[in-house]
Design brief:
Blueprint: E1 2-8, E2 13-19, E3 25-32, E4 35-40, E5 45-51, H1 61-64, E6 68-69
Parallel strand pairs: 1-6
Antiparallel strand pairs: 1-2, 2-5, 3-4, 4-5
Length: about 80
């Protein structure tokens, strides 16, 4: 399993992917306002996207947490 976090400053969103190398993306579902889960073909959660994260964090915490900036284009494997 590999985990990776990205931050999109334009959307103020953090994406966290934690999927097994053999997992294939199936779909996503918004489970609460600003919280989207990504699922694999077996129905397991393989990613999380959180919108509006700046309101929860002090300045500089996003970069210090190790999240890398992300391209605005969302991929199916996000």
């Amino acid at each position: 399993m590999r985990a990776h976090a990205t931050y999109d400053p334009e959307a103020d969103a953090i994406g966290i992917s934690f999927r097994a190398d053999n997992a294939e993306y199936r779909d996503s579902a918004e489970v609460a306002p600003g919280l989207t889960l990504d699922f694999d073909t077996a129905g397991r959660v393989i990613g999380v996207e959180i919108l509006g994260v700046k309101r929860f964090l002090a300045d500089g915490e996003i970069q210090s947490a190790g999240a890398t900036p992300r391209d605005r284009k969302r991929t199916a494997a996000a």
